[in-house]
């Protein structure tokens, strides 16, 4: 019998896990398992068959016990971000609500273009026991179930109805997760009977495979067109997005900017492409950006956008740029490269920047443009220094950010997500080392902070175990999802978590007030259905989950507590109250399109609508 004819009889679940265990990836000359393991909560839909298979492979694919399926997905996203999308984790959940809890985290991974594999229970293919526990019955379509909801939030979806199907489906799922253009989450629905059915799989299918992420070479004509346009620029600017880091093109971006003396601004996802003190780093751009970046964006005539999907917070809802500015978009994704009539360069950022550099030899930006950009950055640095400095004023997010920025190690990783902190971190954090900032604003998902940081810490412990993962989180996000404090303690993956309590959803209250509305249902004190507001004891709550915790009153105490947290061996939570009204970063914002009432009985709402709409004439109309 030839090697190709040899088979091994396995259950579907056993075959899935055995195949995953034998997938590797080459990173910087080193072969590592492509799948770093998984996060799992067992139920009747996955414990008997998939659980049995995972137990067999527990040394090759470590399984972290989750506390909540949604947070497991966030942790998987944080893991893949830390590994720059080169490795992924799987999540396994039972049929029914366990699986549906993953919908939000799948959407987060989809929006952020992050790989994550979901192996989830499903109803029986035979339908003999129907209706089963947790099954949703659709009387006109018995094939339809809760797992079909994932079709809109994943890049690859399949329901396995025969054991042989995984021979095609699993490689396709992995290929999707590793594709620079189509990267995102993959979902496999695993009916409970199919998981345990056997098949004679070809043994060759389980042989070790080493993956390498494809680098797409840009088209020569597109490079030539981009070079010609850039050569005509008198006020060029580079927008550096998250794709720069995912393609490991930070050096190429820096060299390109230095060679041609082109100012660089960063998106939220692209924060930490350059350190803060690099002379061509002009700051973050957009709604949560800096005066410096937005000032040069208004004047730039040619904008080279690298690895960014040009989200509205980057573009100021397309008001941040001159209407006659021309865009060159370098992106592995065709869809992203062609946005707003950009001159597209479809290709890998590293290869594209190298090719563009070769075609623009001799071009240099006029000195006066670079000098102007640097002056704007110096002014912004002075503003940030004052904004983060403790003083005779209420505690603020910015002050807390300044304290941590001053005391942390340059390789520590900072994590923030929805609410007011993404804007405050983006504007005020001074990058000490490249690739050390994770502000989740693709899906802007409350609750990502602690869970995503736990996943990042798992990945970080595989690469830089001596560095810390630092979480900035508000009280609203903390209340929404905090159980991975317990996960981090159980798994001994230390986090430093700063809970900055402003008494509710203060940033949305701020938006409410800025649009002329009265404070309503955002701050705890302004909720009409709350009889008696009281403050949560976050310190005691975190301690109950096994963390070291303490409460501080001011930035000076925060600094001392942070020093203790750095020395601690266990997850540490530091709590501090901040003012919900004062201390916000008021500079650096572009216009943002936000639906406001065209008519209202409230005069303040009407006035705010007129004021908001007064900036609309600056908006580019898709050209």
Describe the fold and architecture.
The protein is of the alpha/beta class. It has three domains: 3-211, Thiamin diphosphate (ThDP)-binding fold, Pyr/PP domains (Rossmann fold); 220-379, TPP-binding domain (Rossmann fold, 3-Layer(aba) Sandwich); 389-577, Thiamin diphosphate (ThDP)-binding fold, Pyr/PP domains (Rossmann fold), CATH 3.40.50. Helix content is 37%, strand content 18%. It contains 24 helices and 23 strands. A six-stranded parallel β-sheet has the order 5-4-6-7-9-8, with helices on both faces. α1 packs parallel to α2 (50-56) and α16 (397-407) packs across α17. The radius of gyration is 25 Å and the shape is globular. The termini are far apart. The model has no long low-confidence stretch (mean pLDDT 96).
Percent of residues in helices: 25-40%
| CATH-derived architecture of the largest domain | 3-Layer(aba) Sandwich
What is the CATH top level name of the largest domain?
Alpha Beta
Beta-strand residue fraction: 15-25%
Low-confidence segments, given as residue ranges, are: none
Mean pLDDT: 96
Number of helices: 24
CATH superfamily label of the largest domain: Thiamin diphosphate (ThDP)-binding fold, Pyr/PP domains
């Amino acid at each position: 019998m030839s090697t190709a004819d040899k088979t091994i009889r396995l259950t579907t679940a056993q075959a899935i896990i055995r195949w995953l265990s034998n997938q590797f990836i080459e990173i910087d000359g080193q072969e590592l398992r492509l799948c770093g393991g998984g996060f799992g909560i067992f139920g009747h839909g996955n414990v008997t068959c998939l659980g049995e298979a995972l137990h067999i492979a527990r040394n090759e694919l470590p399984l972290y016990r989750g506390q909540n399926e949604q947070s497991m997905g966030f942790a998987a996203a944080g893991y893949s971000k830390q590994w720059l999308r080169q490795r992924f984790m799987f999540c396994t959940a039972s049929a029914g609500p366990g699986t549906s809890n993953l919908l939000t985290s799948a959407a987060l991974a989809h929006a952020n273009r992050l790989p994550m594999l979901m192996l989830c229970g499903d109803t029986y293919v035979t339908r003999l026991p129907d209706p089963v526990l947790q099954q949703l019955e659709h009387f006109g379509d018995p094939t339809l179930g809760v797992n079909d909801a994932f079709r809109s939030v994943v890049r690859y979806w399949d329901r396995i109805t025969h054991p042989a199907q995984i021979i095609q489906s699993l490689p396709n799922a992995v290929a999707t997760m590793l594709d620079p253009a189509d990267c995102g989450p993959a979902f496999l629905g695993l009916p409970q009977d199919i998981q345990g059915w056997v098949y004679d799989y070809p043994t060759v299918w389980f042989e070790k495979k080493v993956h390498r992420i494809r680098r797409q070479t840009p088209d020569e004509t597109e490079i030539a067109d981009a070079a010609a346009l850039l050569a005509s620029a008198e006020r060029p600017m580079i927008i550096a997005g998250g794709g720069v880091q995912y393609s490991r093109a930070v050096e190429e971006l820096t060299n390109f900017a230095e060679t041609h003396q082109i100012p660089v601004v960063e998106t939220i996802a692209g924060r930490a492409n350059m350190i803060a003190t690099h002379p061509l780093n002009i700051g973050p751009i957009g709604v949560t950006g800096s005066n410096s970046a937005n000032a040069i964006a208004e004047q730039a005539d040619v904008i080279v956008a690298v690895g960014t999907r040009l989200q509205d917070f980057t573009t100021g809802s397309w008001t941040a740029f001159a209407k006659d500015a021309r865009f060159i978009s370098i992106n592995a994704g065709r869809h992203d490269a062609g946005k707003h009539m950009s001159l597209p360069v479809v290709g890998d950022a590293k290869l594209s920047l190298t090719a563009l550099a070769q075609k623009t030899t001799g071009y240099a930006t006029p000195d006066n443009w670079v000098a102007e950009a640097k002056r704007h950055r110096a002014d912004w640095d002075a503003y940030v220094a004052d904004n983060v400095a403790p003083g005779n004023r209420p505690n603020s997010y910015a002050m807390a950010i300044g304290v941590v920025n001053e005391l942390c190690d340059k390789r520590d990783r900072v994590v923030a997500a929805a609410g007011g902190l993404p804007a405050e971190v983006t504007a005020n954090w001074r990058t000490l080392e490249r690739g050390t900032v994770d502000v989740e604003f693709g899906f802007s998902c409350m609750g990502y902070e602690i869970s995503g940081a736990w996943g990042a810490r798992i990945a970080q412990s595989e690469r830089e175990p001596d560095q810390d993962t630092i979480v900035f989180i508000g009280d609203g996000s903390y209340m929404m999802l905090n159980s991975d404090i317990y996960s981090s303690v159980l798994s001994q993956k230390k986090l430093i978590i700063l809970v900055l309590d402003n008494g509710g959803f203060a940033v949305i209250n701020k938006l409410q007030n800025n649009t002329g509305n009265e404070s309503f249902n955002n701050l705890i004190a302004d909720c009409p259905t709350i009889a008696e507001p009281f403050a949560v004891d976050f310190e005691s709550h975190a301690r109950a989950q096994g963390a070291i915790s303490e409460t501080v009153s001011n930035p000076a105490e925060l600094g001392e507590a942070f020093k203790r947290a750095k020395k601690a061996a266990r997850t540490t939570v530091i709590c501090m109250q901040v003012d919900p009204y004062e201390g916000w970063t008021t500079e650096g914002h572009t216009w943002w399109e936000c639906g406001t009432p065209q008519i209202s009985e409230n005069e303040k709402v009407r006035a705010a609508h007129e004021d908001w709409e007064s900036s609309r004439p600056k908006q580019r109309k898709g050209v």
